[in-house]
Q: What sequence folds into this?
């Protein structure tokens, strides 16, 4: 990927990076393990981001 990114692209990539985390352990404890994984989590090789910004 290019080094020079537009502010819009950088913002989208930052949000995607924040969403790609595990859920905090206290959330699993609080919900009695009904919620155990983050449904937004993706793997960088398998699932690509669909960014339409140049």
A:
């Amino acid at each position: 990927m290019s080094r020079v990114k537009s502010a819009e692209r950088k913002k989208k990539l930052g949000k995607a990076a924040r969403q790609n985390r595990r859920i905090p352990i206290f959330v699993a404890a609080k919900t009695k393990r009904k919620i155990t994984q983050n449904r937004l989590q993706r793997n960088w090789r398998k699932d690509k981001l669909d960014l339409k910004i140049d």
